[in-house]
Design goal:
The strands form three sheets. The protein has a ten-stranded mixed sheet, with helices on both faces. Strands 9-12 form a two-stranded antiparallel sheet. A two-stranded antiparallel ribbon has the order 10-11. Helices cover about 45% and strands about 15% of the residues. It starts with a helix and ends in a 9-residue tail after the last helix. The protein folds into three domains: about 35 residues, no CATH class; about 325 residues, 3-Layer(aba) Sandwich (Alkaline Phosphatase, subunit A), CATH 3.40.720; about 80 residues, Diphtheria Toxin Repressor, domain 2 (Orthogonal Bundle), CATH 1.10.60. Helix 3 packs across helix 13. By secondary structure, the protein is α/β, with parallel strands linked by helices. It is built from 19 helices and 14 strands. Bound molecules: magnesium ion and zinc ion.
């Protein structure tokens, strides 16, 4: 406790020294330490749910407000995010990686309270394994679960479940989910490619360890009450929300997952112990890397519905804490671009297909008013039609800017992906500054028991420290 308290006061003092008179230092230090030095509260929350919107910087939660606005009213309606805003979090990684974090370093900070290098999974800068909040929760007799829309061995969930020097070691990370002891009672997400391999079938190994396995959303309705669950629903990440058979798959999985963790506690007579759960809207980041506003908003919508469900859960289980934040912001997304004072969500709200799906269809079909109206769900202008046609016909082989795009995608499809996004950017007037991450602070939302602890400006490592404390870990033993 002492350690992290002094580190926090120190960083705060540095900020105030640079900007204000010395007299403010004490006030500022006091204000921050108020949230951070709180002694362990008497009534620890029974359940803790950590929610991460990967890449969800403040521009995304703001854009989502305009996106979900009822255009028939003069006010812009409040969102589930707005209701629970508590503060901001800084996200910078260990100095060796500069100030711009990746998902691995940031999730490691959020899961362990320790800053590390970009790429690190649950290890510090010396590659030493650090205990995560999920591991600690498990040791306290809590049930644990992970629900994500990426593959379950992707950087964010892996940083709660594994320890590896590199996020890229996907097979090793998947193997460790068995080899280093099974740490969760519930895993829902994607990842057949890594869990059912030629050299090893981890799904069979999970089954042999007593797990119930499901591979389609229908089976989320019927888990056996006494078995832990592994649910994999895609080869890698789940399909884009807009293309998925269930556009709100994260909220559906979350509902099923929470009910199951409660069933498991009851069967094991551990009903008083509660659970720890990590939920990730993984693909806000993937859309953002591609500077793809319509998919980003659809992923945000799935995440928002998930948090609305959690609100409802906390109403009925007030001994639960929910913390929602992002690991970093992605894409340098701007709500209004090119000096034009305008941002329109209208066409984004009615999208029925992902940008990638639309581009694929346009690659193999003639581009005309009929097909584009079907695919975009609005009428394209002559100008937009010729933009699409030109890009298709003049496509040259180019290296894709989207790291999630297959290298075998034909040039015409790549060119169309780009121009479909351009149509959506022009319609909405969205701006982008990068295909990567940015170092801007991210919003922190929380509700439920002791949610007030997350007020103000904090570092991502503080979030882990507060969660450790609320899981009853002695402060002097916090990393
Ligand atoms: Mg992630
Ligand atoms: Zn990213």
């Amino acid at each position: 406790m002492k350690l992290f308290l002094s580190a926090i006061s120190l960083s705060l003092l540095c900020v105030s020294c640079a900007n204000t008179a010395h007299v403010n230092d004490n006030i500022a230090a006091q204000e921050t330490t108020n949230t951070l030095t709180t002694v362990m509260p008497a009534n620890l929350p029974k359940n803790i749910i950590m929610v991460i919107g990967d890449g969800m910087g403040p521009a995304y939660t703001t854009a989502y407000r305009y996106f979900s606005d009822n255009p028939k009213t003069t006010v812009v309606e409040e969102t589930v995010f707005d209701r629970h805003l508590k503060g901001l979090s800084s996200t910078y990684p260990a100095p060796v990686s500069g100030v711009v974090t990746d998902s691995a370093a940031s999730a490691t900070a959020l899961s362990t309270g320790v800053k590390s290098y970009n790429g690190a999974i649950g290890v510090d800068v010396n590659k030493k394994e650090i205990q995560t909040v999920l591991e600690w929760a498990k040791l306290q007799g809590k049930k644990t679960g992970v629900v994500v829309t990426s593959q379950i061995n992707h950087a964010t969930p892996a940083s709660y479940l594994a320890h590896n020097e590199s996020r890229r070691n996907y097979n090793e990370i998947a193997d460790s989910y068995i080899d280093n002891g099974i740490k969760a009672d519930l895993y829902l997400g994607g990842g057949w490619k890594y869990f059912i391999r030629e050299d090893r079938n981890l799904v069979d190994e999970f089954k042999q360890s007593g797990f119930h396995y499901v591979d389609n959303y229908q089976d989320l309705k019927s888990f056996p009450k006494d078995k832990p669950v592994l649910g994999l629903f895609a080869d890698v990440g789940l399909p884009w929300a807009l293309d998925d058979t269930n556009k709100h798959r994260l909220s559906t999985m979350t509902k099923a997952g929470i009910h199951h963790l409660i069933d498991l506690q009851e069967t094991d007579d551990l009903a008083d112990n509660g659970f720890f759960m990590l939920i990730e809207g993984s693909q806000v980041d993937w859309a953002a890397h591609g500077n793809d506003i319509s998919d980003a908003m659809a992923e945000m919508d799935d995440l928002a519905k998930t948090i609305e469900y959690l609100e409802h859960f906390v109403e009925h289980h007030p001994d639960t804490l929910v913390v929602v934040t992002a690991d970093h912001s992605t894409g340098g997304f701007t709500i209004a671009a090119n000096g034009k004072y305008e941002w329109n969500a209208e066409t984004l709200r009615t999208m029925k297909h992902s940008v990638n799906y639309i581009a694929k269809q346009l690659t193999t079909n003639e581009i005309n008013a009929k097909i584009t109206t079907e695919l975009f769900n609005f009428e394209l202008s002559e100008e937009e039609l010729s933009l699409l046609n030109d890009s298709k016909n003049n496509a040259t082989i180019e290296k894709t800017a989207n790291m999630y795009q297959s290298k075998t995608t034909p040039a015409s499809e790549l060119a169309l992906i780009k121009s479909v996004k351009k149509v959506m950017d022009m319609r909405s007037n969205s701006g982008w500054t990068t295909g990567g991450h940015t170092a801007i602070d991210v919003p922190v939302f929380s509700f439920g028991q002791h949610s007030e602890l997350f007020k103000g400006l904090q570092d991502n490592t503080d979030i882990a420290k507060k969660i450790f404390m609320l899981l009853g870990k002695d402060n002097s033993k916090i990393n």
